[in-house]
Amino acid sequence: MNVVDYILKPFSFDRLLKAVNKVSDTQTTKTVMKEISIETTSTRFFIKGDKKHHQIDLNDLLFIEAYGNYTKLFLKDEMIVSHEKISHYESILTEGNFLRVHKSFIVAIDKIKFIEGNRVLINEHKIPIGQTYKSNVNKLYNN
User: Fold this and answer.
1) Residues 6+ apart with CB under 8 A from 107
2) What is the pTM of this model?
3) 25 with 54, same domain?
4) How far is CA 124 from CA 22, 55, 73, 106, in A?
5) Cα 62 from Cα 103, distance rounded (Å)
6) In angstroms, how far is the first alpha carbon of the chain from the final one?
7) Domain limits for position 30
8) 134 contacts 100 by C-beta, under 8 angstroms
């Protein structure tokens, strides 16, 4: 029921204020705990695709491709179509490990075999580099 406090009638304004503050303090604590648990999440997350919830290990994720209002997540040994937009994954993936290289592609930096011209090669997949994102890609090897 998540009951924090209760008030018996008749009650004073001070008693009501005390109860409201108790709820407020509890909510703040829950928010802080939630933020901490988000920061300490592991390298796994769940996505909904193909009417199932798939657990994705970030170490297996090669790249993500936008597919209209959906996305295709390419893993080492499978591809999953997700009902999220690519911007959702851009916001949740860690910046040091993943890089947006095109309006339709986010790649795992450690899975890049090589960069040639305007393409990134990951396994056998040739992924285009968009002009907008070219400077971000150049930072990978111009440090």
Assistant:
1) 62, 63, 64, 98, 99, 101, 120, 122, 127
2) 0.67
3) no
4) 58, 24, 15, 16
5) 17
6) 55
7) 1-40
8) no
